[in-house]
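Write out the 3D structure for:
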Amino acid sequence: MTIKPKKSLGQNFLVDLNIIKKIVDLANLNSNDHVLEVGPGTGNLTNEILNRNPKKVWVVEKDKNLSIKLSEKYKNKIKVNNSDILTFDENKLCKEKIVIFGNLPYNISTQILVKWILSNNSFHSYKKLILMFQKDVAERIISKVNEKNFGRLSVISNWRLNITKHFDVSASCFLPKPKVESSILSFSPKYKYIKFKNPKSLEHVTRIFFSNKRKMINKAYRSIFGVNYSVSDNLKLDLKKRPGNISLDDYYKITKNYENL
């Protein structure tokens, strides 16, 4: 399949077969698994997924020409959805939990991840996520409190997901060759986590707290709770700390208290 990658869609096709096999190996696929691949491109990863004989494979491809080519190439082996993953509803695929693979476009990778995390519907649809990100984005996702890259994305990503970094992927593994390296992360749902009435409350709270990472959090706190310091007292929250020095659990507890206002 000869296709010229579209820069407007952030297309960089993964062509290294060894890396492709390593990525698919992470899922330990079996004949009962249902798989969704996001951004299959020319089908290089799709081939390897099909080699593992999962029960069902869907792909979501925004590029209409690629969608047509994929349908022609695989016939009834896969179900092709010519859709934008940011608006695609994973729940309509099946009632089973699905394994998601994604060589995500760099320009919208965090939007896709946050969409899955904050959507109560799609969150319950998946078994495991195996995703590729630009390396510096991956570092923000897995960063710990007090580390330089710790921020909103770290707090949101770790809320109800266990995250593992597996390996980096050289730019030379892609066509065309991007200007940056990539990283492979896997995500699996946590069984225990603080539940919110509306998951987007976490997005709201972290946006306020991280609006100025270098400032103490007292101003952000007051913008949410006013001069009511019972929340900070109960959480033993030091309002002189900066956003990057507040623990994950504290952010989740702050959000819970925000919803109870």
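The longest helix spans residues 248-259.
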